[in-house]
Automatic annotation (TrEMBL):
Assembly description: The Tat system comprises two distinct complexes: a TatABC complex, containing multiple copies of TatA, TatB and TatC subunits, and a separate TatA complex, containing only TatA subunits. Substrates initially bind to the TatABC complex, which probably triggers association of the separate TatA complex to form the active translocon.
Family per record: Belongs to the TatB family.
GO terms for cellular component: TAT protein transport complex
GO BP of this protein: protein transport by the Tat complex
Pfam families (alphabetical): TatA_B_E (PF02416)
Disordered: annotated span: 95-114
Residue ranges that the Swiss-Prot or TrEMBL entry lists as coiled coil: none
Keyword set includes Membrane: yes
InterPro entries: TatA/B/E, TatB
Protein origin, superkingdom: Bacteria
Biased composition (Low complexity): 95-104
Compartments in which it is found: Cell membrane; Membrane
Record-given protein name: Sec-independent protein translocase protein TatB
Length: 155
């Protein structure tokens, strides 16, 4: 690669100043800068595309290895399932011969909801005490609370 040091850059600048002239030098420098920027962007785009293609090839290879491993696992599972089916058929045929009548499965009581009033906080204070002292025992919705405590109009 070209080794551009400070001395070489100064020589190039001096030659450009003499050849191009001081009036056109800033415009030429801007043009050269934009062209160098475009070239760098183009090179970085090409590098990124090459990296993407390499990664794509690696992903394809990885996909192929995963697919072959999945096929191997599926084959081993199927062979194991076939062996299991054979053993199950043998076991059930001998068990059905030994037990002609199947016992009825045990019955369990039906699920019953505990009817817990989860919206009302259950405390140690008895409800008769709460009623006597005006402590609420039931939750009210917002609309019900507004209707209950709305001031009465006098006629």
């Amino acid at each position: 690669m070209i080794d551009l040091g400070i001395e070489k850059m100064m020589v190039i600048g001096a030659v450009a100043l003499i050849v191009i002239g001081p009036e056109k030098l800033p415009r030429v420098a801007r043009t050269v800068g934009t062209l160098l920027g475009k070239a760098q962007r183009y090179v970085s785009d090409v590098k990124a595309e090459v990296n993407r293609s390499i990664e794509l090839e690696e992903l394809k290879k990885m996909k192929d290895t995963v697919e072959t491993a999945a096929r191997d696992v599926e084959g081993s599972i199927r062979s194991g399932a076939n062996e299991f089916d054979k053993q199950w058929a043998e076991a059930t045929s001998t068990a059905s011969e030994a037990h002609t009548a199947l016992a009825e499965p045990p019955s369990f009581p039906e699920y019953k909801h505990p009817r817990k009033k989860w919206r009302i906080k259950q405390g140690a204070t008895p409800t008769w005490y709460k009623a006597r002292n005006g402590i609420r025992t039931k939750a009210l919705s917002g609309a019900a609370r507004v209707a209950r405590y709305r001031p009465q109009k006098f006629n």
